[in-house]
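Students often ask why we bother predicting the structure of a whole assembly rather than each chain alone. The short answer is interfaces. A chain on its own may look different once its partners are present, and contacts between molecules only exist in the joint model. In this exercise we take two input lines together and write out one structure for the complete complex. Read the inputs first and try to guess which parts will touch.
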Amino acid sequence: MGNPFKKIESGDKKVWITQPKEIEKILKRKEIALKIAKGKMIDNGGKIETAMQTAEAFGRGLFEELLKDESIEWTMDKWLEPVIKNIFNPMGTGATFTNISNDKAKSYIFSYGQSNEETDDRIATLFNYGFLRGIFRSAFPNGELILENSMVDGAQMDEFIFKANAVESDRLEREKIKNDYISKKILS
Amino acid sequence: MVKDEFVSTGIEKLDVLLEGGTPKGYTILILGGPGSSIEILCKQLATIGKVLFFTTEETRDEVLDTISRFGWDKSKIEIIDIASDYAETILSGEQKRVSVYEQRSKVKLKELIEIGSSGMPPIAKGDQDFLAILSDKIKSEKSDKIILNSLDFFLSQYSQEEVIRTIHAAKISNLQNRGVFYIIMTRGIHGEVFERKMEGIADCVLELEVIQKGSNFERFLAVKKMKNYAKKIGIARYAIDSDGFILEMIERIM
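Now the answer. The structure tokens for the assembled complex follow.
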């Protein structure tokens, strides 16, 4: 079995690129979870918090099923490799990871495969943030996921920073994403 | 007619489907998805008996508004408003939740069952550990019914293993208190393995299903598991009207 990702190394710099190979069952699970998140949000009077929690719970469930290993003391690259292999690739996610250190990595996601079709892009962005955060914080409870740029706002790619040890100013990122959804949804 | 060893659900036809209500001491898992009106069902269940109601998605006022809208009795409901507490917690920053998470991992299941949240290591003032609140309240308050709406919230905040341990402890506390413990959970989010584990823990499993047939939606309530009462397994079509859940047809499977 080869690497689940393509490695590019240039001097000190290493970049990992996913090798998407969609597996229908996992892709379908994400599509269903996204539909449920939207449905629950509607049932609950449009509360964004409901959709975010649903996405995070979905991410935590994926971690438990596909990544959890009691024997591992998680570091960023130990976490990234199985995430790429078991989640990103089967879901058809096109992404590159760079600036990988023990407690931090940056990712550029340029495609979410088929799973975001036929849906409101902004709720899909919120869902993607939530489920990635769920997977990430299952391994790094002190961590935080930062969304730096988003394709729905015109960026070329979704830019995420995975921080295993979040600082005080990162703590309200999740609320920022929710507020962003609400304000831009109203304007659009 | 509900016998002494059973607790009425608050829905007459559901009591009939269950042949006398739900047995005391039982833990009941209710599975459903968007459009199933599961949020109405859990409020209707709360209208009979002394009830401890944990709400994680709606605030206390929203729960009571819905109950009032249907004209149901709300005089015996104690609401634990986790939704509002959580909103306050996240607004005050997530730092505190992290320290609670780390402390929880040191507590053993046996300790959790024996001493509830008082077994937790001391935490700083203002910290909120929602799983501890859940197990502590269930252990200390004797109610006819405990309704948890919903488990999804805890599964977005804690590991599945941690949630299962707490539900185990709460199930035992409920068994000792002879109440009925209803757990609401969304099907399709948490993974098949976890769903099967929860179905295994529960004494009874009810599932709400919405099936689209052409332009119509048909909704069914199925009793999928009932420990020691196989005869109660069955299915009913349901609708919602101004009185709440109306079960229209009953089929026995066994």
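Check your guess against this: Chain B touches chain A at residues 33-35, 39, 57-58, 62, 87, 90-91, 93-95, 98, 101-102, 152-153, 155-157, 159-161, 186, 188-191, 193-194 (CB under 8 Å).
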